[in-house]
Specification:
The complex is a heterodimer. By secondary structure, chain A is mainly beta. Chain A has no helices and eleven strands. By secondary structure, chain B is mostly beta strands. In chain B, strands 1, 3, 4, 8, 9 and 10 form a six-stranded mixed beta sheet that branches. A four-stranded antiparallel beta sheet of chain B has the order 2-7-6-5, with no helix packed on it. In chain B, a hairpin with a 4-residue loop joins strand 6 and strand 7 (about 70-75). Classes of the chains: A mainly beta, B mainly beta. The interface of A and B includes residues 4, 33 and 105 of A.
Chain lengths: ~110, ~110
């Protein structure tokens, strides 16, 4: 079956703009987590959605937000972009929340100029 | 944010040799662990997992060992191939928060 898909794969924005990234989980998976990956900080957890509810949140400012739809697809939004937001944004899906297999998508490479 | 510093240790192995990648995890209550492989420009790829009620699990060419006494996880790759060159991460699931905590990655370089 199809893996986790993320769109767009690459994005270039300027400071102050906002961006929306999309993630479609593996069919049957109801949990979607978002991560930010940078060379200096590694993988940082942003938030997790399960059954359209935010179940967990990392330590990111309120400029970072997300949501999940009834079909389990998820979007994350970053407003008022800063240069430091340049990163690879990864989405991961799992059947449920907690201790079970989590599969990553290819990521969206965001560059903020 | 929650993070793991990216001071990546590097393991260089000869093609055909076995590789052992180690990971120290942080939470003695963690009950589930995953090893991921990440190639340049790609998302992490699930390799193998293990639950805390097991000490060892084998996959195709890979074995994961779990030592709960010292909170240590290892990934063994048999007959390492050039395609195994990547960064390898371990992840632990915190049963209290359901969050995954990622270990510091290890870069594996396979020498021809």
């Amino acid at each position: 079956k199809a893996g986790v898909t993320q769109t767009p794969r690459y994005l270039i924005k300027t400071r102050g703009q906002q961006v929306t990234l999309s993630c479609s989980p593996i069919s049957g998976h109801r949990s979607v987590s978002w991560y930010q990956q940078t060379p200096g900080q590694g993988l940082q957890f942003l938030f997790e959605y399960f059954s359209e509810t935010q179940r967990n949140k990392g330590n990111f400012p309120g400029r970072f937000s997300g949501r999940q739809f009834s079909n389990s697809r998820s979007e994350m939004n970053v407003s008022t972009l800063e240069l430091g937001d340049s990163a690879l944004y990864l989405c991961a899906s799992s059947r449920t929340s907690g201790s079970n297999e989590q599969f990553f998508g290819p990521g969206t490479r965001l560059t903020v100029l | 944010g929650e993070s793991v510093g990216l001071h990546l240790p590097t393991l260089s192995v000869q093609e055909g040799d076995n590789s052992i990648i180690n990971c120290a995890y942080s939470n003695s209550a963690s009950d589930y662990f995953i090893w991921y492989k990440q190639e340049s420009g790609k998302g992490p790829q699930f390799i193998i997992d293990i639950r805390s009620n097991m000490d060892k699990r084998q996959g195709q060419r890979v074995t994961v060992l779990l030592n709960k006494t010292v909170k240590h996880l290892s990934l063994q790759i048999a007959a390492t191939q050039p395609g195994d060159s990547a960064v390898y991460f371990c992840a632990e699931n915190d049963p209290g928060t359901y969050k995954y905590i990622f270990g510091t990655g290890t870069r594996l370089k396979v020498l021809a």
